[in-house]
Amino acid sequence: MKRIALLSQRLANQIAAGEVVERPASVIKELLENSLDAGATRLDVEVDHGGVKLMRVRDEGAGIPKEDLALALNRHATSKIFALDDLEKLTTLGFRGEALASIGSVSRLAITSKSREENLESAWKVEAEGQDMTAKLSPAAHDYGTTVEVRDLFFNTPARKKFLKTEKTEFARIDEIVKRLALSRFDVQFNLKHNQRAIHKLLAAKTEQEKQRRVAMVCGPAFVENCVFVDIEGPGLRLWGWVSLPTFSRSQADLQYFYVNGRIIRDKLVTHAVRQAYSDVLFLGRHAAFALYLELAPEAVDVNVHPTKHEVRFRDSRLVHDFLYRSLHKALADVNPSDQLATQSSENYADEKLPASEYGSQSVTELIQQNSFPLAQSRSGGSGFAASNAAMQNQVREQLAALETLNQDGDAIPPLGYAIAQLHGIYILAQNQQGLIIVDMHAAHERITYERMKTACAREELKIQPLLVPLSIAVSQAEADCAETQREVLLSIGLELERVSAESLVVRQIPSLLRDADIEQLVRDVIADVIQHGSSDAVQSRQDELLSTMACHGSVRANRQLTVPEMNSLLRDMETTERSGQCNHGRPTWVFQSIDELDKLFLRGQ
Ligand code: ADP
Ligand code: MG
Q1: Sheet harboring 590-594: ordered strands across?
Q2: pLDDT confidence of residue 22
Q3: Which parts of the chain register pLDDT below 70?
Q4: For the chain: N or C, fewer Cβ within 10 A?
């Protein structure tokens, strides 16, 4: 056995650094948090070679008094808590007093600072030297505030250095950290440079519009154009921020920012609540995007769970989960066409270079561009076409004006406007005040039917309609067994089936909402669903899915000619139906193209 000996100061810190300092980005996180804790309103971050060579963070915060400079490098040295009680009502991002000691033990660290408290002529600089990390102080030039420089990260711990990825990857992580923090403090300016090149310059955002602009710069303009702003209060809780419309989903969960009292966290409970809120509207396997802020009393949440402070523990986790789920569920249900139009015609961010959107936010422009005919084909009409086109436009204008006067409140054309035609038996074309609306007839009708059936089922008011001529269907033995054993469940969703022999069923009643459906196919699909999901418990809890299957069959099929009044009534239903912006599978039910955008398409006025 070897003898026991005290670890050197540096070695002890290096061991602790294993938890806090995983890579350059973790250093940036700690330094920026320190600057924010010091009350900085402007942060300048400069990094070289993905941060491995140099990371420099400058702030004009409170600064560190000369006498405290040396202490700051010690482990368990902090100005943020003094007693255990303080942990309960934490308002700072840091509190463990470990970051600077850990960083200093695995890099060449220098802190230069001038405190606003003292009236000193010059600033002071401190560096840690040797195994016991003794502090070396020297006078330096600096304005009020602090600059921390970290050079040659992991120069003395080669094993850790090996785990670093390419410069590009390490920088991408730093960039992500800066973005996360930038979304947590709109009032602070963030500047980021890599290898002397300016990457971000995010000015402090005060107005709602400026904040939204920052969100667009961090999350991409497509997100802002396809999200709704929420602000909801609950018992001792407030949730606000931006959540994506279900039609703007992503293949990865990479645009999800969640803050608890200003601290970014990744939490299972939160993820679960959000997932559930989107469960009825999101395309399978896709992920929502959001920047959400939860505020609650500091005592109601424990942040001292993990050294990187990425996890938290809620005192009343049930309450938090339900509040999140309910708030978001309602916010998504409440999205109506006029909200969607408002977000779609919001500010244009095209001048900033930002990640492109990927799915779901496809505009009509893109659709038209993808499907446009070669010019030669569309020329056939000649000038006669132009003339009749103008005549038609006039006609349409008159029609709109007439409709407008018909409207009781005089000036309001409904958000989704009025139908003008049906295209290929699939789409409804409508015009509103600002432009063109294209509706996927089946998708929209499906959602409306589904929502009606859900509401009716929940209130136990699902109207059923006996079939005058009961329909017999030949099925397999297994299907007949299922219909027999799950009779009650099927009745609860409005289907009355009776087994008349080993391999045949008779349909006696169906929900009246589905009277136009292909009943035989509907019954087969529902039974297939039920068989797949087994016990009646499971079936009951999947009631929504069964209703969704039925709604799909009960909705207008392609190639059904609709009259203009029928189309208009569908548009009006969409305006008042929850979640009507997406079909039951999360695809959009309608898109909008403003006259301005159409003009651009035809290079008008350019
Ligand atoms: P913690 O943030 O958990 O207190 P750190 O090791 O990160 O521990 O920092 C130690 C102390 O150094 C802080 O408590 C703070 O008093 C001081 N400090 C660090 N960075 C700054 C800064 N940018 N401006 C002012 N004070 C700072
Ligand atoms: Mg800190």
Answers
A1: 418-423, 427-431, 435-440, 590-594
A2: 92
A3: 342-411, 534-541, 606
A4: N
Kindly give the distance from the C-alpha atom of residue 71 to the centroid of ligand 1, in angstroms, as a whole number.
10
Percent of the chain with pLDDT over 90: 48
Distance (Å, whole) CA 44 – CA 60: 10
Domain 208-335 has CATH 3.40.50.720: no
Alpha carbon of 560 to ligand 1 centroid (Å): 69
Rg (CA), the chain: 31
User: What tokens were used for 331?
Assistant: 């916010």
CATH number 3.30.1370.100 is the correct assignment for the domain at 443-606 = yes
Fold of 9-200: Heat Shock Protein 90 (3.30.565)
Q: State whether the beta carbon of 38 lies less than 6 angstroms from ligand 1.
A: yes
pTM above 0.90, yes or no: no
* Per-residue pLDDT tens over the stretch 4-21: 989 998 998 998 888 889
- State the closest ligand 1 atom to the C-alpha of 57, by its place in the atom list counted from 1: 23
Name all contacts of 474-480 with Cβ < 8 Å and 24+ positions apart. 474/503, 474/504, 475/503, 475/504, 475/505, 475/524, 475/527, 476/503, 477/502, 477/503, 478/531, 479/505, 479/524, 479/527, 479/528, 479/531, 480/504, 480/505
pLDDT at 187: 97
Tell which residue, 253, 308, 249, 383, has the closest CA to residue 16. 308
